[in-house]
C-alpha cells in the first residue's frame, strides 16, 4: 500500500478540521471539545511518522498487537516524549487484555464484563489506569459488537442490564469509564445513522442520571463517512481513517 506524504496528510487534515468546525458551528459546539483519533490500522509505521509530521497526535488501532508493535516502533523513532496518545478502538479478546494494559492509553470498545475484569486486574498490577468507553450496539445488527441496547427505550431489561454493567465497571480499579462508543450501521441513510447516534447520546444521559457517581458523559462516534453527524449528535471523539490516509484496499 502506498503511503501518502506528510504534506498530503496535512492538506487532508485541514479539510477534515474544516468539516469538524462546520459541524460544530451547526451544533453550537466548540471544536476544541472534539478529539480526532487518526485511524492507522493496517498501514505501516512510516504512515504514523508522516502523520506525526503533519501534526497528528492521536492514533487509533483496531488490533492490540498492531498497536503494541507500532507504539514501540514509533517510540524508537520519536522518543518517549512525542506526546502521542494511542487509542485501542477495536474490541479485545480477553486473553489479549495484557497488551492493552501495557500499551493502550485509551480503550474505545469495552464490550464484555469478562474483559473489564481482566483489564482491571492487569491495571492494578502495573499501576496504570485506562480511560475506557463501553461499546453499545443500538442498531441491533448481529455483526456488531457491544452491549445489546438496540431497544433500550422500550426494553427495561436492556436498561437494567446496562445500568448494572456501568455500575460494576465504575467500581473496577484501573478502568476509568469515560462514556459510550457506538458504530453506525453500514450502508444506510444518514437519518438512520443520526438516529443511532442520537439514541446513544440519550442513553448516556439516562445512565448519567441513574448513576450520578459514574462518568458517562463522553461519546466516541463517527468515522470517515459519518463523523459530521457524530459531532452534530454530541461526539467528543471521532475515529477517522480513510479521510486522512486514503483507502486501505
Ligand atoms: C477502521 C475503524 C475506524 C475508521 O474507519 P474509516 O472508515 O477509515 O474512517 C473507526 N472505528 C473503528 C472501530 C474502526 O475499526
Can you tell me about this structure?
- By secondary structure, the chain is of the alpha/beta class.
- Helices cover 45% and strands 17% of the residues.
- Strands 1, 2, 3, 4, 5, 6, 7, 8 and 9 form a nine-stranded parallel beta sheet that branches.
- The mean pLDDT is 97.
- The site of pyridoxal-5'-phosphate has 11 residues, from strand 9.
Gist of the model:
The protein has 249 residues and is an alpha/beta fold. The protein has helices spanning 6-27, 45-53, 64-78, 97-103, 113-126, 156-170, 190-210, 227-232, 242-245; strands at residues 35-39, 58-61, 85-88, 106-110, 130-137, 147-148, 175-181, 218-220, 237-240.
Termini separation (Å)? 8 Å
The gross shape turns out to be: globular
The number of E-state strands comes to 9
Mean pLDDT equals: 97
Oligomer: single chain
What features would you highlight for this structure?
17% strand; nine-stranded parallel β-sheet; binds pyridoxal-5'-phosphate; 249 residues; alpha/beta
Topology:
Blueprint: H1 6-27, E1 35-39, H2 45-53, E2 58-61, H3 64-78, E3 85-88, H4 97-103, E4 106-110, H5 113-126, E5 130-137, E6 147-148, H6 156-170, E7 175-181, H7 190-210, E8 218-220, H8 227-232, E9 237-240, H9 242-245
Parallel strand pairs: 1-2, 1-9, 2-3, 3-4, 4-5, 5-6, 5-7, 7-8
This protein binds pyridoxal-5'-phosphate.
Residues 39, 41, 62, 89-90, 223-224, 239-242 line the site of pyridoxal-5'-phosphate.
